[in-house]
Design goal:
Strand 1 and strand 2 form a beta hairpin. The chain has 2 helices and 5 strands. By secondary structure, the chain is of the alpha+beta class. It has a 5-stranded antiparallel beta sheet, covered by helices on one side.
Length: about 120
């Protein structure tokens, strides 16, 4: 997928509206269009990287900070914990070829399972 055709690039650039839950220098978070659980968010790099293998290691600390910021918001909203999922390549379930992490807020007994 070319950067110009990327739905996440269009969201980052404001071409497609999205409710931003978090925004930092290099990452932004917004609700998943097809949430698996209530509060499911995507943490997306502002620059186009196909997956974690394309992302420079220098962004790792900022990615962790973005994850922690979004998780704190979700915990304040009533989540008891959270799962992090990052699919890398279509064979691993990646649909949008732009690096992103799924943050799935969890509550005991919510009926959702990461493991099939």
């Amino acid at each position: 997928m070319e950067e110009g055709d990327c739905v996440f690039c269009k969201i980052v650039n404001g071409e497609i509206p999205a409710e931003k839950v978090y925004e930092g220098d290099n990452f932004v978070a917004f609700p998943d269009a097809n949430p698996k659980v209530e509060g499911h968010c995507l943490i997306v790099s502002k620059k186009h990287f196909a997956n974690v293998m394309d992302m420079p290691a220098s962004l790792g600390g900022e990615l962790i900070d973005a994850i922690k910021s979004v998780a704190e918001i979700k915990l304040k909203e009533g989540a008891e914990g959270f799962n992090l999922v990052m699919n890398n390549s279509p064979s691993a379930g990646q649909i949008v070829m732009h690096a992103h992490v799924h943050l799935l807020p969890r509550k005991k007994g919510d009926g959702f399972s990461i493991i099939r």
